[in-house]
Here is the input.
Amino acid sequence: MKKIVFSAVQPSGALHIGNYLGAIKNWVELQKNYRCIFCIADYHAITLKQNPRILKKKIFELVCIYLSAGINPKKSIIFVQSQVPYHTELAWILNCITKISELKRMTQFKQKSKEHPEKVNVGLFDYPVLMASDILLYQTDLVPVGKDQKQHIELTRSLARRFNKEFGKTFKIPKALIKKQSEKIMGLDNPLKKMSKSAEDPYNYIALTDTPKLIREKIKKAITDSGKEIKYDKEKKPGISNLLTIYSLLSKKSIPQLENQYKNKTYAEFKKDLAEVIIKSLTPFQEKLKYYQSKPEYVKNILEQGRKKAEKISQATIKEAKKKLGLLCS
Ligand code: AMP
Ligand code: TRP
Here is the structure.
């Protein structure tokens, strides 16, 4: 039996190269050796206010992004979270074994509620429990994500252990799979903070749909550090180190190789080449994206197949959990 990989992205904001390098790119490779399940986390997206018309478009776009990045629907399951009712059902069950104090400790919640104190709803607070349900429903072994999700996966493991201990073995204990080099791509406008979909300033990120002109502009404007050496040093040169990381991940050249290549070159020369490397990797992706976006029936069909498969797997888990709790289930 192949081990199970599960991951998801929210269909909100502009997907950027941080999401691609930190998460989706790694999923593509995992398809070779694992049974992979990739979800569109639309219920997570509505924990912040969304425009219904745009949300619908974003859900469809995200499926197309998965396909264009190389997720193969013949190998992997692709589905939308809200189309499988067991996610919210298990979230309720897990809510009843989650302590309020555990959720209050979640860094992402603390950050988001500090940034938008007026927008803190119960869903935002409970978000990690829904994420735990996503993962545990599929008896997941590995969860490939960026570093920002590590704490949520730790919580998922605690909840699974707690349930298993109290009611008998029901859930597999999953592990986070975080690739060191791409675990945290930083913002172009502030290399001390992660590149973020919800950034106010679009110069924070390179969106997967940015045009070549915009990419050149954004890289040109990206913050660099004092001095002029192109050298990886996260402490002293966070800006250049972040750009070197992006360059290395997209070109498959190692950082020492790049340092060597740009030994006597200027920041401007380095940035000019980096912009072209990004454009070169995004162009074929963007062409595929356009193609899938022009085939809504094909995409809908993939989601329907995915929904059926996801429902079948998750139904077995929810039934078992309800039985263990003493609930009636058909
Ligand atoms: P989100 O944008 O929060 O829906 O995240 C989707 C996936 O991308 C998750 O696995 C995140 O951990 C990952 N991710 C988001 N931002 C970054 C970043 N700046 N660097 C690396 N991974 C990221
Ligand atoms: N919360 C994740 C994020 O914003 C998305 C997500 C939802 C997820 N459910 C998941 C990631 C399950 C991994 C596994 O990045």
